[in-house]
Amino acid sequence: MYTRMMIVSALIISVVSTSGCATRSSVTKAHDEARDAHRIAEQALSTAQEANNRSIRTEEMVNRSFRHSMRK
Q: What is the distance between the alpha carbons of residues 45 and 38, in angstroms, rounded to a whole number?
């Protein structure tokens, strides 16, 4: 029983000691990756908004053309 408790204790200590807190460099790396992801998302949003605006303009031109052709 005593050896089993020692083994379990050693296992718990080894797991806790290897899973410690994040280092400053890993936090900095995660922050940089998050900043890059945010920048890419902003670019994607901008591209999507431009495409949407272009689509709206095209739809308006098609509607005007259709209405014009229906008047004739």
A: 10
Give the integer Cα–Cα distance in Å for 10 and 4: 10
Question: What string of DSSP letters covers 4-27?
Answer: HHHHHHHHHHHHHHHT-PPPHHHH
Q: Give residue-wise pLDDT tens across range 14-55.
A: 665 555 566 888 889 899 999 999 999 999 999 999 999 999
13-39 as b/e, with b when 16 or more CB fall inside 10 Å? eeeeeeeeeeeeeeeeeeeeeeeeeee
